[in-house]
Design brief:
The chain is α+β, with helices and mostly antiparallel strands. The chain has 8 helices and 6 strands; from the N terminus they run E-H-E-E-E-H-E-E-H-H-H-H-H-H. Strand 5 and strand 6 form a beta hairpin.
């Protein structure tokens, strides 16, 4: 089967994993990595900036169409391809998914990924050591964010209600990494609804393909 879309970015990136999850949910074939049409894309060099003027990932390439920024990529995938819908048809419910997609892309990502998880994935201390002072400084924000997410999820099946959506695809890779940390039990209560949520997302067919140990090579 031919590849329908190309995703620029490494497999370990939470945002690349979000796009992968959407492709899996829609049944779309895709290629990931730092190549487009067989050509190497050098990070933040001219070949990359031609696809994303701010030098970020992911970028989606679908034929002649090129789209950057994760949530818009996911919205494009949802309407451009057949398959299960990832956005509600009701106007208000769709706005809630957009609202949480934006909040996850910014506030949640900053607290859980940029300020916390990246210190474990790519330590910046002496000789590649984890900067425990940075971890300690960031942990209160992590805990506060998890409280907010627990409140939003409540007893719902998905972060915005009864339907899997783009917001779930954005949130799941972040929580999956967080719940995989050796000290995760100090972040989540044993009866955490978020842990149960992550377990359900891992068991989805899309999760079994995408939520796998990261290859950081």
């Amino acid at each position: 089967m031919s590849t329908q879309v190309q995703i620029l970015g490494p497999q370990y990136s939470t945002m690349v994993r979000t796009v992968m999850l959407c492709c899996e949910e829609k049944g779309i074939t895709y290629q990931i990595g730092m190549q487009i049409d067989g050509n190497d894309i050098q990070f933040k060099e001219s070949s990359h900036l031609a696809l994303h003027p701010f030098g970020k990932i992911p970028v989606l390439v679908h034929g002649e169409n090129q789209i950057f920024e994760t949530a818009p990529i996911c919205r494009y995938i949802d309407v451009a391809f057949d398959g299960p819908v990832l956005q509600p048809t009701d106007t208000y419910q769709r706005a809630l998914v957009d609202q949480w997609s934006q909040a996850i892309s910014w506030y949640v990502d900053q607290a859980l990924v940029r300020q916390y998880l990246l210190e474990f994935a790519f330590p910046k201390g002496d000789n590649g050591s984890i900067r425990l002072d940075k971890v300690a400084d960031a942990q209160p924000s992590v805990m506060s964010m998890l409280v907010q997410l627990e409140k939003q999820l409540a007893d719902q099946a998905f972060i915005c209600g009864t339907q899997y959506s783009i917001a779930d695809a954005l949130l799941t890779p972040m929580l999956d990494y967080l719940a995989s940390l050796p000290h995760a039990n100090s972040l989540f209560a044993s009866d955490s609804s978020l842990l149960a949520y992550v377990a359900r997302m891992r068991e989805r067919p899309s999760g079994k393909v995408v939520l796998i140990p990261a290859d950081k090579s």
